[in-house]
Amino acid sequence: MMNSGYRAHPEYRDHEKVVFVEDEGSGLRAVIAIHSTALGPAAGGCRVWRYENEENGLRDALRLSRGMTYKNAIAGLDLGGGKAVIMLGERQTKTDAMMLAFGRAVEELGGQYYTAEDVGVNIADMQLVYTQTRFVAGLSQGQYASGDPSPITARGVFEGIRVACSKVFGTPSLDGVRIAVQGIGNVGWSLCSLLSQSGAELIVTDVDAKRCDRAVEAFGAKPGSFERFHATDCDVYAPCALGGVLTRLSIPQIKAKIVAGAANNQLEREADADALHALGITYMPDFLINAGGILNVAAEIRQVGDPHWLDGKFASLVHRMGFVLDAAADQNISPNRVALDLAEEIIRRGRQI
Ligand code: NAD
After folding, report:
1. Does this model's pTM top 0.85?
2. What's the pLDDT tens digit per position in 173-202?
3. Which of 21, 184, 214, 325 could form a disulfide with 105 if both were Cys (CB 3.0 to 4.6 A apart)?
4. 172 shares a domain with 60
């Protein structure tokens, strides 16, 4: 079902295509948003979430797909930006039939959009999607299968934290650095593991208390306040759960000197990056620091055979994080602004080729 009402949505920014999917048999309700195909087919994961209402699901799809355009551009990939959200009803849970119906919807787009895992979706789900379409990555089997992108995403976030520490504290060493990790899921757990091996002191929280307890036990982490985690007394605040944590209300309460984490769409509004900058807090743009996973996914989509390709792209990504922080310091503007300008420039140039 196509619906053009989305154009009036405040988060709509010239998205190329937004498809609303409803499948009666499985009960699937989904939005697939394609923001841009200027650099190549749109790529971005599929999120399964219980939204309060459809408007919130559409908002998430519009914001996340636009973020993917910037992420893929700044990561140096020949891919555009897209994202899918599957909206669960109050009593619904994710089913195989839903994933199959979602796969058919992706197939109908004929390769304009490639899907993969995001929050609430695992490799087994993507294998099901693969039975309906070849426009899917993050698979466990196949010549170019890249598997779960979370470990490399965590590695990118880890390196991004080191880059930021190097600029702000004068050393990339994390020994004794107090890092507050919010959300100990796939990425958060791998990140905690890397950070604790580097001597960081961890403070953790998760809406799922068991995950938090496991991190306390495994990494000697301290449990933090759930409601006011952003205000934790620490050096680095790493949001690794959901977006929208950096707001007009939360920013003035942040005690960390650095905000650097995996979550997509951490800023409620773009202007919130300027508020962080004005308070002397270094914010590593989310779409830059969390791009490790999409490199993995891109290698699968583009069927890259060169075994050194991924390492090269990863090294360039880490280098770009340093470049963005340096340029922001030179121009006395927020790193987010620098990163957005850089991504837009890459897209403009890509369009001209
Ligand atoms: P996940 O679902 O495995 O983990 C999310 C964790 O956050 C869960 O443990 C959940 O219980 C917890 N959580 C949810 N709401 C919370 C809250 N209010 N406070 C504290 N904890 C809360 O997801 P993931 O794959 O680890 O991804 C985490 C974030 O990173 C997401 O925003 C995702 O979009 C982003 N991201 C992930 C990848 C990847 O490769 N997986 C890549 C780029 C960006």
Report:
1. yes
2. 999 999 999 999 999 999 999 999 999 999
3. 21
4. no
